[in-house]
Design a protein that fits this description.
By secondary structure, the protein is an alpha+beta fold. The protein contains five helices and 13 strands. Strands 5, 6, 7, 8 and 9 form a five-stranded antiparallel beta sheet that branches. The longest helix has 12 residues, at 2-13. It is globular, with a radius of gyration of 19 Å.
Length: 196
């Protein structure tokens, strides 16, 4: 039945032989399934305030878990002591970055830091070749009891590696004065359980 499913998927997906997806990269299991059906995935990352592209990678130049390579006409900086290893705020600047929010000076001041760098609100790393790896959103980051930064998206990625989990979301719950505890809400893959 698997070859028949792949053949059907190829026929159904043929009109969309190359697909675009922006933001957090798809889970590797989903990417593998889509690619095995003959579809090519183009990875990109952007936001309206950047008109809108920040990074891009064609299907044949993609790096796993990245959202593509920064575009040449935009500067990207990770606000971190070691941008390749230690996640930090993703900051951007360039001619395509907005000048500010219309009639909202307070929001504009809050969005721009360090000599007119726009803070995207995302946390990530940047490798030596200019590929961006999003770890999560700064608003989603949890503060653990020992002061460590916990990125829910990274935990979700590990949970989704299990064939028995179809969907996962990690949330923070206050734990007295000890910071936040990470809680996971899971949707099991019942078909996988039944197949076992």
């Amino acid at each position: 039945p698997v070859p028949a499913v792949r053949r059907l998927a190829r026929e159904c997906l043929a009109p969309w032989a190359a697909r675009r997806r922006a933001g957090q990269p798809p889970h590797h299991r989903m990417s593998s399934r889509v690619c095995s059906a003959g579809t090519q995935i183009l990875h990109g990352y952007g936001m309206t305030e950047c008109g809108p592209l920040i990074s891009y990678a064609p299907w044949d130049a993609h790096r796993p878990q990245s959202v593509g390579k920064r575009i040449t006409y935009l500067d990207v900086m990770i606000d971190s002591a070691d941008p390749a290893q230690i996640p930090g705020d993703i900051l951007v600047r360039g001619a395509n970055v907005m000048q500010g929010y219309y009639k909202d000076a307070a929001a504009t001041r809050a969005a721009f830091v360090r000599d007119q760098w726009l803070n995207t609100g995302d946390i990530g790393t940047l490798d030596g070749d200019g590929f961006i790896y999003i770890k999560g959103r700064s608003k989603n980051m949890l503060l653990g009891p020992s002061g460590q930064n916990i990125y829910p998206e990274e935990i979700e990625e590990h949970l989704l590696a299990s064939p028995y989990i179809m969907e996962a979301v990690v949330i923070g719950r206050k734990k007295g004065n000890e910071g936040e505890a990470a809680w996971a809400v899971l949707v099991p893959d019942l078909e996988q359980f039944r197949a076992e």
